[in-house]
Amino acid sequence: MLITFTSKAASEVLMYKEHAKRILELLHKDVDQGVITAAEAPHALQVLEKEITESRQHSVSEDVERDVHAHHNEDGDDANHEEIQAVSFSTRAYPLLEMLRAAKAGGHDVVWGV
Question: What ranges does the record give for the region Disordered, renumbered to this chain (predicted)?
Answer without folding.
Answer: 55-84
